[in-house]
Write a structure and sequence with these properties.
56% of the residues lie in helices and 5% in strands. It has 187 residues and is mainly alpha-helical. It has 2 domains: 10-151, no CATH class; 154-187. Strands 1-2 form a two-stranded antiparallel ribbon. Helix 1 (43-61) packs antiparallel against helix 2 (92-150).
């Protein structure tokens, strides 16, 4: 619904971020084992305050108050569809104050919501870059190990394996003799 005052026109229109499928939740993507990164910021977290402030500003510029306001007359909370027309010239100062207050709300929205969203995006990009570098390093190491295994000389590998087997058998023989010795062998 719109505002009751005025009954028609652009100052009657209510504006709100309504979102849509996939715009109000946080969507994540798994980057590596144990690491998932959010790939979006819900639109209402970024735009709600700015849209409310712009709605109030449009009404003030058109000559209308917007409720709710706090005890000092400063815009406070989501516009509720109420408000009355300014009476000129006596309400000129009040209209000017409403315009200034709504512009301050726009600045606040920019600093608290838009800048926070931009910072969040930058942090996520940094995490993605770090994960990408880690995956590239891991891929390089795997390729290096694979190449060393594929390029090994089969005859050298067989010789090394035979030597290792001989050493193992000798160790097992000595260990068996040592463990098989009892006190009776010394008497």
């Amino acid at each position: 619904g719109g505002y009751t005052v005025p009954a028609t026109g652009s100052a009657n229109t209510r504006y709100a971020y309504t979102g849509g499928d996939g715009t109000d939740g946080v969507n994540t993507v798994k980057v590596t084992d144990g690491i998932s990164i959010a790939i979006n910021t819900p639109g209402n977290q970024v735009f709600d305050t700015a849209i409310e402030a712009l709605e109030r500003l449009g009404r003030a510029l058109s000559g209308y108050r917007t409720t709710p306001v706090d005890a000092n007359g400063i815009p406070n909370g989501t516009p509720d569809g109420g408000g009355t027309a300014f009476v000129f010239p006596q309400d000129f100062h009040e209209q000017t104050q409403d315009i200034l207050e709504t512009m301050a709300l726009i600045d606040t929205a920019k600093v608290t919501e838009v800048t926070a969203a931009r910072t969040s995006v930058a942090a996520r990009l940094t995490r993605l870059d770090a994960a990408g570098k880690t995956l590239n390093d891991l891929s390089f190491n795997v390729k290096e190990v694979l190449a060393s295994l594929q390029d090994s000389d089969i005859f050298a590998a067989a010789t090394d394996l035979t030597q290792a087997q001989t050493i193992l058998e000798a160790s097992l023989s000595v260990t068996g003799r040592l463990l098989g010795t009892t006190i009776l062998d010394y008497i």
